[in-house]
Write a structure and sequence with these properties.
By secondary structure, the protein is mainly α. The chain is built from 2 helices and no strands. It is 82% helix and 0% strand. Helix 1 (2-20) runs antiparallel to helix 2 (27-60).
C-alpha cells in the first residue's frame, strides 16, 4: 500500500509542475486537466480498493465479547 502511495505521488508530481507553469484558466492549463483527472481517478480507485480490503479484513476477524 505504501509503495502504491509513493507511485501515485511520483505520478502526481510529474503533472503538477506542468500545471504550475500556466495560469489557471488558460488553454494550456486546461489542456493538462485531463492528465490530472487520470491521476486523481487512479488515486480514487486505489483508495476504494484499500477501503474494501480493510472492510474484508474487519469482517474476517472474530467478534469480540
Amino acid at each position: 500500500m505504501t509503495r502504491e502511495a509513493e507511485e501515485w505521488h511520483a505520478r502526481f508530481w510529474r503533472v503538477r509542475p506542468r500545471l504550475a507553469r500556466h495560469k489557471r484558466g488558460r488553454e494550456a492549463y486546461l489542456d493538462l486537466l485531463p492528465d490530472l483527472s487520470v491521476e486523481l481517478e487512479w488515486l480514487k480507485l486505489k483508495a476504494q480498493s484499500a477501503a474494501l480490503s480493510l472492510d474484508e479484513y474487519k469482517e474476517s476477524q472474530p467478534d469480540e465479547g
